[in-house]
């Protein structure tokens, strides 16, 4: 019997070592790609998505490029403004992704103001839906936790926010070494994200604008400290979501954000459903910059940005 237990122990040790070696190899090329194919994990290799998509935006905000204005926001903001950066050397354009939540937008704002002492204006352009984004189990870990941890900006968030993240994703999985292991290995990422979706619910806020309220007000105070003007501008919305916008507006009006940004919902411009296949991002001919420029001009009319933004 003792021999059996010794053999069993040896087997478990060797198995553990083998799995550990395989895990390490899954983080480095060429084994990373090979093991991803063998384990049907190739779809989880990060290429310009998740942390790989968001980290460059944070790094751009941290770089003193001598700009004095920042345009930032969700993926629709990115779609509309990304081709205009080359014509506007005095404006930094960092449209990113709504999945970073308003906590992530706050990080971009703070990092930008730290590295741009002459900043005058921040233009936050978001779909109203983006103001309701929370720490979910679909995109939250890849788009919020991973880039924040890897750029050492998670510490900029309030303690209650980090506690929410720990509750959803697990305290261990906010540690830099663990985040790196999940980011670099498609196998690890597949295992963790699938377990996360199956066993955990995302953070459920008490009201839709809970995170937005906390970080918009925090951002507003930050801008006051730096004597910078903060502008909140609604991105264009598909007409199919008009009723949902009315529901969100009623909730908005009952909170403190309506006092600071009273015209946000009344300033929304709507477009027909045929202009966006997914109901959010412009598609086909409507995704051409010339078409989007018309929407930009309408969206920013009445602001100083309307007189400053160049289109060619």
Order of helices and strands: HHHEHEHEHHHHHEEHHEHH
Helix content: 40-55%
| Total count of domains | 2
CATH class of the largest domain: Alpha Beta
The strand order across the widest sheet is: 2-1-3-4
Q: What is the C-alpha radius of gyration, as a whole number of Å?
A: 22 Å
Judging by the overall fold, what is the CATH architecture of the largest domain?
3-Layer(aba) Sandwich
Mean pLDDT comes to 89
Terminal CA distance reads 81 Å
Number of helices: 14
Summing up helix and strand content along with how strands pair, one would put the structural category as alpha/beta
| Morphology call | globular
Quick summary:
The chain is an alpha/beta fold and about 300 residues long.
Written overview of the protein:
The chain has 14 helices and 6 strands. It is of the alpha/beta class and 312 residues long. The protein has 2 domains: 2-38; 51-308, Rossmann fold (3-Layer(aba) Sandwich). The strands form 2 sheets. A 4-stranded parallel β-sheet has the order 2-1-3-4. Strands 5-6 form a two-stranded parallel ribbon. The chain starts with a helix and ends with a helix.
SSE layout and pairings?
Blueprint: H1 2-25, H2 31-38, H3 51-62, E1 69-73, H4 75-81, E2 91-95, H5 101-115, E3 121-126, H6 140-150, H7 159-169, H8 176-184, H9 186-199, H10 210-225, E4 229-234, E5 237-238, H11 242-253, H12 257-260, E6 270-271, H13 289-299, H14 305-308
Parallel strand pairs: 1-2, 1-3, 3-4, 5-6
Helix pairs in contact: 3-5, 3-6, 5-10, 6-8, 8-9
